[in-house]
Amino acid sequence: MGWDPAGNWACGGSNVSRSDLSGVRTGPLAEGEWVTLTDPKGKMHSVRLQAGKSFHTTKGGIALDDLIGGPDGVVVTSVGGMQFLAMRPLMADFTVTMPRGAAIVYPKEAGQIVMAADIFPGARVLEAGVGSGALSLSLLRAIGPTGRLWSYERRDDFATIARRNVETWLGTEHPAWEVRVGDLVESLAASPEDPAEVDRAILDMLAPWDCIDAVGERLVPGGVLLIYVATATQLGRVMDQIRVHQGFTEPAATETIVRNWHAEGLAIRPAHGASSHTGFLVTARRLAPGVTSPLRKRRPAPGAYGPDYTGPRPPWVEPAVSDG
Ligand SMILES: C[S@@+](CC[C@H](N)C(=O)[O-])C[C@H]1O[C@@H](n2cnc3c(N)ncnc32)[C@H](O)[C@@H]1O
């Protein structure tokens, strides 16, 4: 998938947008839509359907007119006799191939986030940063037409890429999605009542610990805070900062590992190629105003907050004793 030389992603045709704002297209393939052509070796090519044009392969061209007006999921043959499977991309296919500004949340985590953060139809969700808009796509689908999503991004150029990606996928603007350019904490401070409260908050940024107080002020009691971090050092810091806040439940951390398998006759084994690390998910729930989390009875692991530890120090942890 990619943008054409004029920088357009326009997906023409009468079947491009649905009232559910899912971005899913059904019915006959229409001119202007993108399809994925998969060759016999499994290599995928993204092609925009344009009347009178051909897609060129090493085995001759494929007339795109052969696809326009026909069903999804067909086999087309190039002039030189090579067969290609033609299908509309799924949202996950689009997400991993769309233009990027910042690194994206991959579909394996996006799926987890929707469940772990309990994103529901009609939910009011705050998100930062928006980056390339990959996670925004999943959040928008989960909240549906009746939800609201406020996405904060401090880089204007990334916000533009994200808006274009989401609009391309949906085929239209999402009426309940607002991208706000600016630092999250500063933006929230500048608009105390907008949004006045949110049901869920999702952070994917370099220093999420700096935003926990500000986000905690907008999150409803029982609301879910979910933070995606890439590194173990970020994970440790964000977990302890949530504990320091005391207005959240004990945070939980997970890593999502998805392993593909090869299963053919008696050759049944994990697929070749390692699945590399992407990130960690940290979740915690907001307590009611004025309520602080009960002090933990369990003692921290020996040395967890020893003299070498310089991060946020939860209130039940004894002050560091210096050597001197
Ligand atoms: C890894 S990217 C987010 C990717 C996004 N979740 C996606 O799936 O496409 C992190 C983004 O957070 C933005 N960011 C970092 N700190 C921020 C802050 N304090 N306020 C707003 N945006 C911030 C960065 O500019 C960057 O675009």
Automatic annotation (TrEMBL):
<protein>
    <recommendedName>
        <fullName>tRNA (adenine(58)-N(1))-methyltransferase TrmI</fullName>
        <ecNumber>2.1.1.220</ecNumber>
    </recommendedName>
</protein>
<feature type="region of interest" description="Disordered">
    <location>
        <begin position="291"/>
        <end position="324"/>
    </location>
</feature>
<keyword id="KW-0819">tRNA processing</keyword>
<dbReference type="InterPro" id="IPR029063">
    <property type="entry name" value="SAM-dependent_MTases_sf"/>
</dbReference>
<dbReference type="Pfam" id="PF08704">
    <property type="entry name" value="GCD14"/>
</dbReference>
<comment type="subunit">
    <text>Homotetramer composed of a dimer of dimers.</text>
</comment>
<comment type="similarity">
    <text>Belongs to the class I-like SAM-binding methyltransferase superfamily. TRM61 family.</text>
</comment>
<dbReference type="Pfam" id="PF14801">
    <property type="entry name" value="TrmI-like_N"/>
</dbReference>
<dbReference type="InterPro" id="IPR014816">
    <property type="entry name" value="tRNA_MeTrfase_Gcd14"/>
</dbReference>
<comment type="function">
    <text>Catalyzes the S-adenosyl-L-methionine-dependent formation of N(1)-methyladenine at position 58 (m1A58) in tRNA.</text>
</comment>
<dbReference type="InterPro" id="IPR049470">
    <property type="entry name" value="TRM61_C"/>
</dbReference>
<keyword id="KW-0808">Transferase</keyword>
<feature type="domain" description="tRNA (adenine(58)-N(1))-methyltransferase catalytic subunit TRM61 C-terminal">
    <location>
        <begin position="94"/>
        <end position="265"/>
    </location>
</feature>
<keyword id="KW-0949">S-adenosyl-L-methionine</keyword>
<keyword id="KW-0489">Methyltransferase</keyword>
